[in-house]
Amino acid sequence: MSTTYPTRGVLDRPRSRWADIAVFAGAAVLIWLVVRVSQGMNVPFDDSAAPSRISTDPAELPYYAARSLLRMFLALGLSIVFTFIFATAAARLPRAEKVMLPALDILQSVPILGFLSVTVTGFIALFPGSTLGLEAASIFAIFTSQAWNMAFAFHHSLVSQPRELDEAARNLRLSRWQRFWRLDVPSGMFPLVWNAMMSFGGGWFFLTAAEAISVNNREYALPGIGSYVASAAAESNTGKVLLAIAAMIVMVVGLNVLFWRPITVWVERFRFEDTKSAQAPRSLVLNLLRRSHIMLLLGRIFGPLVYPIDRMMRVFGLAEHQLYVPEKRRRANDLVFAVIVSVALAAGCFLMLRYIQSTVGFEELLHAAGLGAITLARVIVVLIFATIIWVPVGVWIGLNPKVSRIAQPIVQVLASFPANFLFPLIGAVLVATNASLQWAGIVLMALGAQWYILFNVIAGASAVPNDLREAATSLQLPRTLWWRRLILPAIFPSFVTGAITAAGGAWNASIVAEVVKFGDTTLTATGLGSYIADATSVGDGPRILVGVLIMSAYVVGLNRLFWRRLYALAQRRYSF
Hints:
Blueprint: H1 8-11, H2 17-38, H3 61-92, H4 94-109, H5 112-126, H6 132-144, H7 147-159, H8 163-171, H9 176-205, H10 207-211, E1 212-215, E2 218-221, H11 225-234, H12 238-266, H13 284-290, H14 293-302, H15 306-313, H16 327-359, H17 363-399, H18 401-416, H19 423-433, H20 437-462, H21 466-474, H22 479-513, E3 515-518, E4 521-524, H23 528-538, H24 541-573
Antiparallel strand pairs: 1-2, 3-4
């Protein structure tokens, strides 16, 4: 009796002309919107007569939302490019990694206002007489709120790759280009997509500061939903703030359905496991794309280009490294590298300290350090409560496909929604009740930072191989042992990544959480965030430098002494 096998065409999904029409129409509308909205990004600009507010006419809200969305996706594209280059270099160059990861810690700790105070003038000078300068500054500011988290996640996926995959890449003599696209990107796709989604939500959080720019005693306002909220809050118009919140909810839900949900379902194919989940997540949009002939047509057009590009990129060499380096040579190279880095750091610190001593004096460093301790206490409270609340919730969502199908969209909406849009309403309540921002600031910081932990825990729990979960079920592990021996070790790497970025996010959130404005009233909480915000608004360069320096010292110091040790432990003992 002969065995017959189905042809490839039998296994193909059924195609539909209606799907073709829907995909083609959607692509046409998207292209038209991008062209239409991008035209407003390059219009004449006069720095001396630049508006500090925008119109709060509700009819403009759809256009403002589209402008903000375009900036967000441009920043996301830049963040992905940065992540691929930076994280890959850090993972493949051990000596550079010793500098690049601390640099990433510092960059993550620098608040968005710190970047804006330095870059706005330069971008305006780069594009004289055009709003492209302000647009570039705004996009760069949003980029700084997205890129660091994604780089940390992708770097962790690279350094925790199974050893057998690395050996397979070398045995197959893959080029660096081939290894990156055939191994590195697919193996890191799952955490990258989840952290990109979380970083996108982080960009929404700082959208107001990126569009309603107040630096160096100057105020600029770009058309966008963030600046709309800022202008409505300045007018004490809670009705228009609520309209912006409603528009934001619609946009976030639409993004989840049309963009993030299809990607999170598609990325399921990159899991490392031997068994398949009984109930795979689904997406109507992804199903529509799969039933369309257009995707198949694109594959036939661009597929033949893969091999020629691979041949061209072989000039970058093979994806292999020396397995043995003579001890004397390694030590000599390490010494030269250490000397160069030490001299550069010493020169930079000397120039920076001399500038501070000649302007505000070293006493200002002690004052800022005391304020930083107060903000640190708020950050610790945020992390403790976020961990207690969201780790069990994240595990529950990640391990239950039925729950995940319902809860993930809700979580994505909550995480993507910019909590600082609620700050004017909270400010109105605080003003009406004459309450203090000292304790309320903790809640405001939590609204912007807690989601990093939840999203990473969900991603970690979703990535637990089904064979391990089925083994635990077969062994009938008690609930306590199930948590201690399976779940907590399995999610530990993801939790550490989320906690590191949540801590950095909380420090950054302090800039907007410790200063809340509503109408003519400004509420201020004692802390390093309000110190930097005040220095930035008046253009006090020395105090901005002091504030950013102290915040970076706190973040990097904690990362070195605490978080990095947990990160190394997660990488050494708990990575699959």
